[in-house]
Design brief:
- The chain is mainly alpha-helical.
- The chain is built from 10 helices and no strands.
- Helix 4 runs antiparallel to helix 5, helix 5 runs antiparallel to helix 9 and helix 9 runs antiparallel to helix 10.
- The radius of gyration is 20 Å and the shape is elongated.
- The protein starts with a helix and ends with a helix.
- The relative contact order is 0.08.
Length: 209
C-alpha cells in the first residue's frame, strides 16, 4: 500500500472516530462515554483508538475543532442567504436552539472541566466578541439596530451578564430557555421598528411550532 493511500486511510479512521465521538458525547454526556465504550461502538480495538488519541481530552479537542469548522461553514451559508444582519442572527439562533434541544445538557457542563478546552472556549469567545461588534455596527448601517446605541457599553454589559448571571440562570431554567429569553429580548431592545417587526414575526413563528 502506497504512503498516500495509507495516509488517506488513517485520516478516514481519524475523521470517523471524531464524528462518532461527537454524536455519543452529545447524546449521553462526556463522562458517561468511556474510551472503551467508544471503541466498542466504533467496532475498533482500543489500541487503534489510543493510537489516534492519547486520552479523552485529546479526542474532545478534535471534536471541538471539527464542530468549529462545521459552524464556520454554516455561518458562511447563512450569511450568503441573508439580506441583513438580523436575518443572519435569527438563522443562527434557530439552528443553535435546535442543536441545544438535541444535546444532553451534561455535555456543555462537562466540557468546561477540561483545561485545554476551557482555553479554546476563551479564544473562541474573544473571536466571537469581535464578530458581534461588527454585526452590531453593520446592523446600525442597515437600519436594523438603533443608531444611538452605545456599542462599546452594550458589548461590555453582555460580557458581564454572561460571566455573572447566565450560569445561574442556565441551571435554574435550562440552557435553551435562558438563551431564548435573554437573546431575543436583548436584540429587540437594540432594534429599530424595522428590526422589532422582524423579531416579533420570528417569535410568533416559534410559538406556532
Amino acid at each position: 500500500m502506497s504512503e498516500s493511500i495509507q495516509s488517506s486511510s488513517r485520516q478516514a479512521v481519524h475523521n470517523h472516530i471524531v464524528e462518532v465521538a461527537n454524536e455519543q458525547f452529545r447524546l449521553h454526556g462526556i463522562r458517561s462515554v468511556r474510551m472503551d465504550d467508544l471503541a466498542a461502538t466504533l467496532g475498533i480495538s482500543k489500541r487503534t483508538l489510543y493510537e489516534e488519541f492519547a486520552d479523552k481530552e485529546a479526542l474532545l479537542l478534535a471534536v471541538n475543532l471539527r464542530n468549529q469548522q462545521e459552524m464556520e461553514k454554516l455561518y458562511q451559508k447563512f450569511h450568503e442567504e441573508s439580506d441583513n444582519v438580523l436575518e443572519f442572527m435569527l438563522k443562527i439562533f434557530r439552528f443553535t436552539m435546535q442543536l441545544f434541544a438535541e444535546t444532553n445538557p451534561k455535555y456543555f457542563e462537562e466540557m468546561q472541566r477540561y483545561p485545554s478546552l476551557k482555553e479554546e472556549f476563551l479564544k473562541s469567545r474573544q473571536n466571537h466578541a469581535h464578530h458581534i461588534k461588527q454585526f452590531v455596527m453593520d446592523g446600525i448601517e442597515q437600519g436594523i439596530f438603533r443608531s444611538d446605541l452605545n456599542v462599546e457599553l452594550f458589548l461590555k454589559t453582555q460580557d458581564l451578564m454572561h460571566d455573572r448571571g447566565l450560569q445561574d440562570l442556565k441551571k435554574q431554567y435550562g440552557l435553551t430557555e435562558t438563551l431564548k429569553t435573554t437573546l431575543l429580548v436583548t436584540l429587540r431592545g437594540i432594534s429599530t421598528l424595522k428590526g422589532v417587526s422582524m423579531i416579533d414575526e420570528f417569535i410568533e413563528e416559534l410559538r406556532k411550532q
